[in-house]
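Q: A reviewer asked whether we had any structural model of the full assembly, not just the individual parts. We don't, so I'm hoping you can provide one. Inputs are below.
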Amino acid sequence: MKVCIIDYGMGNIKSVSNALDFLGFEYKIINHPGDNIEEKIIIPGVGAFGDAMKNFEPFLSKIREAIDSGIPILGICLGMQLFFENSEESGEINGISALKGCVTRPKTNLILPHMGWNSLKIHKPDCPLFEGIDNGYVYYAHSYHVDAEREVVAATSNYGSKIIASIWEDNIYGTQFHPEKSGEVGLKILKNFLEL
Amino acid sequence: MLQKRIIPCLDCDLGVSNGRVVKGIEFKDLEPIGSPQKLAEKYYENGADEIVFLDITASIKRRSTMSEIVEETSKNVFIPLTVGGGINSIKNARNLFNSGADKVTINTSAIKSPDLIDNLSSRFGSQACVVAIDAKRRLLDSKDDIENFTAVKTGEGYVWYECSIYGGNKFTDKDAIKWAKEIEKRGGGEILLTSMDRDGTTHGFDIPLIKKVSKEVNIPVIASGGCGNPQHIYEVFNKTEASAALASSIFHYESYTIKEIKEYLINKGISVRSPKDKK
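A: Here is a predicted structure for the entire assembly that you could use as a starting point for your response.
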């Protein structure tokens, strides 16, 4: 079984693949929409929503199909934001729209980007990503966050206001933070996803 | 709640095979410490929140050595890695990101062509673009100075801070406070602020400098230069709005471990990612 990391030209594939190597999981990097999707998908990503969706366009139908078929999919940071409908950051461009909600600028008086280690508050203890993790710190680096329906919120962090740290609905998982850069807590979260 | 970060800095001399970490005093007198990769791994295990690699040799032919160091380190170290020294193009930066760097830090090239800040942050995101300022105290001693530069009150009277480039070898006549604001406007994601007067002295951070810059900008400021003990780190977090403290000799010479520093800070009421929550 191989995990597919989608490489759509937005970011740090290397950090994610290093973590998978370290954890001992096989993966393949998908950089062509024609490549076969196997049992699990990771969508990494850093940068701006609009550029990301433009680059992501060729993969769109394939990813939607995979989501419908029930393949577990994990979006990291910008990768998670793409699951939603649209973003304040890039007006007209639509996201994958697998989940309801949009990407907005956090309503906080604190400085942005929200960068550094923040504590996690887990709202869905039954979310498989957080198995064996009751709290701990994770690493963030972002200026936008998702404004999603309560039902999909798996964890939050506090940064002047509530930031959605993680979402979960059926086979769709997402983290606003970077598990691949969050030390042992992050590696455990990735491992939990890989072992689904 | 966001935690204050503790960042070990590895000054790398890439003139030898696989590179070596060195320590300089006030940007001079270099002394070898050890292997960049091994030190990074040790600091990661000890609870560092991020690692900075600075190529102090910064020559073009040695840049591939830095990529190799980052590539090897990122296989075992799962915290953000920042790389700086001689980066002057999107292409340099991309090579480092492809090797596993999460952020690049630029100084000389940013001052020489400020557009590089805009370009890096629009291409890779502002979170990946750190701009370093090496600031030197200058006495405000003429009417012209007072008109041209931002006055900062210090123990030795009012001073202004001048930006330096080329690892402290060249001065620019540029006001560090104004430059910090411009960096933010251009999309820089963080400022790595080093006091050249304090660097390597272990006499403590330049509090007036860090206080002023961290108040004036709305992006994270990493305080650097002068850290000699945990009290200095407490002082910089207590008296300024710095988001992170960077140090090197305090870790290299094992005067204090990162764990000891964090325990000290937690006892003093500073929020840091506690080492015991590492697992």
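A: Points you may want to mention in the reply: The CA atoms of residues 86 and 171 of chain B lie 17 Å apart. Chain B has a mean pLDDT of 91.
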